[in-house]
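Budget justification, computational time. The allocation requested in the original proposal was used primarily to generate structure tokens for proteins on the priority list. As evidence of use, we reproduce two of the resulting records. The first is shown immediately below.
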Amino acid sequence: MDSAPETPLPPGLRALQRLVTALIVVMIGGFLVLIGALVMRLNADGPPLPDLLPVPDGTEPTAFTQGGDWLAVVVRDEDGAERILIYDRLTARLRQEVAIAPAE
């Protein structure tokens, strides 16, 4: 049997083949980084609650956020009720307490 010799690819097509291969490698690497970041984010604990904020006894902090001159902590009581405690950023004194009503 007579096999035809393979003709080499033209230089432009060879460069395109290398570019496509590089794109595949970069996309796979980016996908792996994205999956890794997602896994780390989902396994992470919540934000650390600043030690200087006095949360009431019998409550568990569930969320923390901050604004310009205030800090807010969402706490859950032992009975499951949730409240938002708003503290002054500089003095760490309780400014306001907001009860979160359950959805109807």
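The second record produced under the same allocation is shown here.
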Amino acid sequence: MKDIKNNFDVVNSIDPDDYIADANGVGVDLRGFDGSAIVFSLGTVTDGTHTPKIQESDDNSNWSDVSANDQQGSLVDLVSDTNQRVGYRGNKRYLRAVLTISGATTGAQSAALVVRGISHLAPVN
């Protein structure tokens, strides 16, 4: 069987928590990797609308939404007990997850992970 564990890395952009307001994830540095994806993971959504998107940056300071041409797949409003993932094929150095939340008083259990793969060096630690 081929080794996958040592060929990718996972970093939290949005830490797991109950969210009732918009959340900008932390930027994840893609240097040293030629592929990436973001996974949004949901527990229970009790109310509100939870809309995911991904953003890119050259400097981890100035952010812009990733265009549809630079995404593999698409994102839709999040629902309970699901995962959504999109690939990133842009050329910016930093990537982050964003949740836009409206109408929530108790919110949703949410998290977002950046998966970095196709590493320049293996094994990935």
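A brief technical remark on that second record: The chain has a mean pLDDT of 95.
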